[in-house]
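Sequence in, structure out.
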Amino acid sequence: MPRFEQDSDVRALGEALAALRRERGLSQAEAGARLDMTSQGWGLYEAGKRPGLFRPDVQRRLTAALDASPEDLALTAARITADAPATPPAKGVESGGRGWSGAPSAPRVATERLQLSNDDLAPWAASGVVLEFDPGRWPRRDQGCVIDLTDGGRLIRLYDRADADRLYLRGGPGGLDAETVLERSRAARVAAVIARLDP
């Protein structure tokens, strides 16, 4: 089946794009304006009616407009696919009465904490600061991240960007100006830092 037909994969990607946009509090017009695109053009991507949604370069453009990454899009789409009902929804509209509890939330992975023991990320975070991180969330550009390595080690850095083979990070013994390039095959888990708690 051609990718531009409405299948569950393209629907999930479109819904994921819409979810990322709503998380950032943007309308379709505001998101589209960041790319010199109309709200209708943006809406076609969210509706899964534009075949380019599967192209990595298009995903990078769209997610960059939302200060997100293609990895954020993929994680959100996977969550949407996992939460989708096994049977297709009935056609038409059903009313559950006057009350509405909102969309069901995806099960959240518990956040974790660790305390920094060096100044590799100063002034962003210094020794003694406790970082709270979410293993279910991919970091955005300039956001702290905790990377568990396949050899059992752990890196705490600022996320810069990623490509198919590498993660590009900032921070380390040389301070925030030092760049670290990490092969993706060495990363067992990448988690976004969601809070810095001063001692």
